[in-house]
Amino acid sequence: MSESTLRIGLVLPDVMGTYGDGGNALVLRQRARMRGIDAEIVSITLDDEVPDSLDVYTLGGAEDFAQRLATRHLSEHPGMQRAAERGRPVLAICAAIQVLGHWYETAAGERVDGIGMFDVTTSPGPERSIGELVTAPLLEALTQPLSGFENHRGITALGASARPLGSVRHGVGNGTSDRVEGVVQGSVIGTYMHGPLLARNPELADHLLQQATGTALAPLDLPEVEQLRRERLAAAR
Amino acid sequence: MIGGLVAAKIDPSIMARLADGKRTVLVTGTNGKSTTTRMAAAALADLGEVCTQADGANMDAGIIAALSLARSAPIAALEVDELHVPHVADATSPEALVLLNLSRDQLDRVGEINAIERRLRAGIEAHPETVVIANCDDVLVTSAAFGAREVVWVAAGSGWVGDSVSCPRSGEPIVRRGEDWYSTGDEGFRRPAPQWWFDDENIYGPGGFRARLTLAVPGRANRGNATQAVAAAVAMGADPAAAVAAVGTVGEVAGRYGSHQLGEHRIRTLLAKNPAGWQEALSMIDQDADSLVIAVNGQVPDGEDLSWLWDVRFEAFETMHVISSGERAADLGVRLLYAGAEHTTVADPLAAIESCPPGRVEVLANYTAFRDLNTALERAGAQPLDPAAAPETQEPRR
Fold first, then answer.
1. pTM metric for this prediction
2. How far, in Å, CA of B50 to CA of B79, rounded?
């Protein structure tokens, strides 16, 4: 945390905000404030340059046209890429995985370049994967199952530099034969989980916050969040 | 409905034959179809008997059922699901088509909104005989209607711009400057000048027409709906002043905005089906009411993905105690928790209402929660109240 306030980047909510994923930034802010840490959301739109000075970055899902606008903007203003090279955490949801990869292929068969932060490529699958998604986390810091709602047609193949975020217990995930979900590369995490992700997975939210603040955080006792997790994990059986 | 389905199975051309000879207006869009159709039917009644759906059933079976119940009516005002417009237009050769707004419906059920816009655009291009009454504040609606031979543009408002940040014709950004908007990728594509518009008091139309617009249903979105209904009726030959008076008589629509008395509670129910509808419905909630119950289900008709709850600004209820209810009360509870809104959870909506202190209770619910609550209210013996007489409508009478 560079100053006394934690600054959370909500990257391109005007184009990458189709599925409530702005909630991830909100959950980070509120969980910081619940521990007495000043926190604010910095919304970065197509009208803004992307600063490299923020403590954590979040990106949401989008549809095809909007995905291209986001890719172009992030290439022209590579602040988030510089921040990630310095170890700042970045969370990329759904289409943002594709934007952050080497390239993705559209449903019409066109190959569109991404910004190359993830060593992944994405091609369209035979049908959309829609429904509850549960994985066992492969990130060392996490112990609890991850829960989310997937709605995508992309099949994402990981290259040698990328690791999966979780191992699929229910649902489809990346759509490759090894039944894995998501991407981890350095401090950058990608996943197909909406919900929003951090509303359903407080352990991951706090992992990102600890990376962003550089300090260990005491757990929060929020029974409603646990109730939601129980319900959603049960719904996936 | 079942009758309509059976009829279509026996004779696939039945919709066309039932509509033959009728002067038809179709009403479509993501939100406001039922209310606007009811308003258009009221405004057209001066021209003759109007055939319309009583129940908001807006796919083939519901349309056929409505048409077959009013064979002799010379006019039809039909609400049509967005995806059904092209073939319903082929069957009915409508005189007018009202395009209200286009935004995402259930996240997990409906494909890309841009694909829906392109289908509507193609459907309109196939019907040069139809005058299109289109909302020029909605970028996607404007794109669908832009190439129509005859368009009446209405500034009906747009409360939700999240689905139209990119130009549906070029993919480039849409720039908004006040009311105006334009595409940065297609020079000719920008907001057309409206022939009809409204403000908090009046409706304005061609030739300097101006009249007081007083509605029995709440909210700014319904003033936009009423303006489009009037524009459609006038395009079909109705008198403007009479049309404005007629749309003001439309109150409860299929239980939406309905008020009930149950024991010590005066209950007003609001239906919201999708993100744009929720944001609009939140603006209709009377913050002076004694209690607020919000009920959310996640069944297939509602959409099983409730992520959109996070696109709705529940932060507005920091000052009002909310009871989180419905089958997905836990999802809503977590949303309210992080919104900083004081709340409790009572999963059953009727029990949630009964747990409120005596007085006025506002209830906001999504589709199946709303439907099931109305059934439960009826079983519990709740007395319907005249919505037009309710003092808490959002628009002040001046």
1. 0.84
2. 13
